Amino acid sequence: MASVKTRLIFRAAVDVFSERGFEKATMDEIAAKASVAKGTIYYHFKSKEDLFVFLVEEGTELLREKVLSHLTEEMSSSEKIREIVRAQLAFFTEYRDFCIIILRETWGDEARHREFRRMLVHYVQSIRQVIAQGVDEQIFSVENAEVAAWSLFGSTSITALHHLFADPAVDLLALAPSLQAIALGGLHAKEIT
Amino acid sequence: MASVKTRLIFRAAVDVFSERGFEKATMDEIAAKASVAKGTIYYHFKSKEDLFVFLVEEGTELLREKVLSHLTEEMSSSEKIREIVRAQLAFFTEYRDFCIIILRETWGDEARHREFRRMLVHYVQSIRQVIAQGVDEQIFSVENAEVAAWSLFGSTSITALHHLFADPAVDLLALAPSLQAIALGGLHAKEIT
Amino acid sequence: MASVKTRLIFRAAVDVFSERGFEKATMDEIAAKASVAKGTIYYHFKSKEDLFVFLVEEGTELLREKVLSHLTEEMSSSEKIREIVRAQLAFFTEYRDFCIIILRETWGDEARHREFRRMLVHYVQSIRQVIAQGVDEQIFSVENAEVAAWSLFGSTSITALHHLFADPAVDLLALAPSLQAIALGGLHAKEIT
Amino acid sequence: MASVKTRLIFRAAVDVFSERGFEKATMDEIAAKASVAKGTIYYHFKSKEDLFVFLVEEGTELLREKVLSHLTEEMSSSEKIREIVRAQLAFFTEYRDFCIIILRETWGDEARHREFRRMLVHYVQSIRQVIAQGVDEQIFSVENAEVAAWSLFGSTSITALHHLFADPAVDLLALAPSLQAIALGGLHAKEIT
DNA sequence: CATGAATGAGACTTCATTCAT
DNA sequence: AATGAATGAAGTCTCATTCAT
């Protein structure tokens, strides 16, 4: 990812893949948007799939880093959960294209789908650990930490995605208080959070 | 939807679209799986997109009916939420292919994506009403019923989808207790539910 | 051409063939316009080509009859030529669809093209005889009566066709005086006619 | 029109379009005749229609140039008309395929037909000007120069086309004297020309 | 490193024709 | 006589990938 061209291609690819989806995206459009010749993409990436997987790995890893980097030892488990929700919304705001790609291209049986789920599972495991710790500390009381982790990821990302498409100008971070309250206290919420 | 062939095509299309996604699915494969000639599909449906939209409308409407049909006046708002979670998991078990199609093909800017989101918004609005009623009755305490509705839908469907791909033999209904508890009480849950 | 249905199909076919051309015309559209089922066309005509040839034969024969029927023994050769031009323009006005079909579908190497040219040659031969008689009577002085006949047909029909497309509301008969003068006297024309 | 492949495709297209007509011509046959892959045609031309329109524009423009290039200031109007007839027959001899395409594919309501008529109108306007000048100089006496121009074009091209199909080996230039005499003097012709 | 012309497999779609009713 | 559902061959066009320069 050193070369200037590589970066140009990377950015163009994120753009095009998120707008069109993997199948509908064309190497021609990516090349045009990156202002390089089509052959140049193939000099840097083995194939369309290769480019896509590379991009998705970078993106998911970045999501994981961004979200986890704000968690510190001093935080309570509840604070950690609030921070996870906030950081994920912040990431979706900054990299809204990744947000779309992530939820579009995860569910399927091709190699890239599996690769992608592997990355996502890795990310969700990190959330699971935070939840599991909260359970150990008897702050949380969920039976199944893994289900809770996927639930949290699903809740946050689908809500964000819906709002992105319903109103492209939406401020996702404004959703944070509601989503945090729901995550911690559910529909009964109230005083607890 | 009357004709025998139409039903054959419908079933085959659900199969192929869910396995391959809209773009990767081919009319050839649908025709083969339905045991009809390719031209026959075009006799009944205007285009690949038309077939897909028809299928998605039927599916989403069925989801809405299945989920709403079990809600009765006598239920408390909490019971209604539990039933929504249960019924949605039951639907995803019975029509797992629709579940995959729904989450794959909703996010995009083409006509079928918008059409599809329109259907989904309709379904989520139904959930929102149940939540809003609970808020009126001071059983629930969420600020934003719409966010809560999308959160519930995202939580349930992403969790279900993950488990379907992680373990095709999974019993989705076994997830119900955890998801219901999380929906109502969040991570703090415990005694409340 | 007895049956009611046959006539319905005939009229619809003229319509569609003239608007779309032979290749672009579809049996579906003809059937719809004739308000009969597609199979019904095949009950009355062997094939699309058969229908077309039948229609073209009827049309060309009608053109020939209409044009020749006004020629009488008493007319001078010049009057006959004027009448031919007038009658052809009148025919093109009344059956403008045939006019288009005739000039679109004559030039090619398929069976229907040859069949069609055979009909047209027959018609032009009739004009040739009128010209040849005028030459015998030393009223006309062209060397090659056949060339003169094709020239007359080409002059009248291309001019008519151009005006039909340039202005669909054109009154073709208004072109008669000019075309008659040109036919008889050429560009030098003047007093002779 | 620079690239070698482009020229190969161009020639093959003229061949196939003139033999089959626009609708019946296939990109497969054009590709085969040009000895290029089908995709190569689409690399150079946007569509079948695009290729056809390009070809027709080149052809009609060439016809116009060829015919007009022989007209000089010193010629009398009559000589100019004779030259127009001769040059058009010479063009039809050299590019007989264009001649066929021109008269087959001009009359219709699709984009390419209209584009084509626009080109043809441009050409015929050139003839009209020659005629109009002759009228100004009181050499010609036609009332309507435009009708005369279309008449001349129709006379020459339909006669040529008929002879090309009736006898592929015909020498079109042998028709020149007759057609010139008819153009200038009509059927009465004789001494005038 | 970079290019972009060329490729060909494969997709969607159309439509004349058939045939059981 | 008439119907219209069903067919499948055939056509246009797309696009990931290659390769000679």
UniProtKB/TrEMBL annotation, chains A, B, C, D:
Family annotation (PROSITE patterns): HTH_TETR_1, HTH_TETR_2
GO-annotated biological processes: negative regulation of DNA-templated transcription
Keyword Transcription attributed: yes
Domain named HTH tetR-type: residues: 3-63
Keyword annotations: DNA-binding, Transcription, Transcription regulation
Sample GO molecular function, one term: transcription cis-regulatory region binding
Start-end of DNA-binding region: 26-45
Descriptive protein name: TetR family transcriptional regulator
Organism of derivation: Ferroacidibacillus organovorans
Species lineage: Bacteria, Bacillati, Bacillota, Bacilli, Bacillales
